[in-house]
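for the writeup, i need someone to sanity check this before i put it in the appendix. the sequnce is what the collaborator sent (i think, or maybe the updated version? ugh). structure was predicted straight from it, no edits. if anything looks off just tell me and ill rerun, i have time this weekend
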Amino acid sequence: MSPASQLAPVPADLPARIVDWARELGFADAGISSCELDADAAHLRDWLAQSRHGQMTWMARDPHKRHTPSALHPGTLSVISVRMPYRPLAADAQQVLADGERAYISRYALGRDYHKLMRARLRKLALRIEDAVGPHGYRVFADSAPVLEKALARDARLGWIGKHTLLINEQSGSWFFLGEIYTDLPLPKPSSAPVTDRCGRCMACIRICPTQAIVAPYQLDARRCISYLTIEHRGAIPLELRQLIGNRVFGCDDCQLVCPWNRHAQLATEADFAPRHGLDTARLVDLFAWTEDEWRRRTEGMALRRAGYAGWLRNLAVALGNAPRSQAVIDALNRRAEHDDAMVREHVAWALARHRSQTASG
């Protein structure tokens, strides 16, 4: 624990000042929460016990650290949560989803990867706090360590966790990133009541999910989730889910697109989140033609790197298998039919067979 937290009293107005500083740094809002996450720990244990994390083995690694902030960063007494809007000014998402010749990429991944940007801003915020109260022990996170960020943000009064398991803010919807500062400062916790869950009887996110990954309100089975399948999953995509993926090649936003609260969603204020390389309207056949060198060059500094090049081609092959049949689509698939990667070859073969079967039945 730092000398500051042991000796210097924390000014009563510090939480309000933290919110102001966070907004000056480009965050939409900030809040303080305690470190008590017992109910969320039980939910996590149940989720893991049902293997709903799929291949994300890191979710099951050291779960105690995930729901006990002081175990992850010793000395932590308080958590500062922030949110930053990422919804870019881009081509209409529904129009892209309806156009089977185009690739749908999750809105968060169209521009710069947020992880480093968020952590850099959080460090600046931590230094602002240090300037005001002296040294304090802290660590910053932006989806970069075992943190129950949605639960912490909920407890910081930044919103409620919706039926799709994402955080929803009444004024801003759900199109935002979350980040945290774990600190050993004994910051005053919110005196206001928790934000009321305002999902009500709405089931829009559950009904719209293409693969029915939201198996019940507030319960997500990642093994069926398109975001998981196209980003985190390694290996073959289950046959029964391929057709349901449609033209989604990296992530899925359907549950957010249909959420009524996103009528109020803010556009991103960060210019780096704007779409790069025309990816908000890109054609599947064009993306499938990228060489690995071209893919590395074009995706530098972007979340798209997460899938890996073979995963990128796998996802595109599935989307091309679901695309309207055309000579351009067939030619694109045939050019990858003998790809070095067995996984890519298998998904290309599936796509070509799908087009052949449609021709035969037509």
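The chain has a mean pLDDT of 95. Strands lie at 29-33, 78-85, 104-105, 138-141, 160-161, 167-168, 176-183, 214-216, 219-220, 248-250.
thx in advance!!
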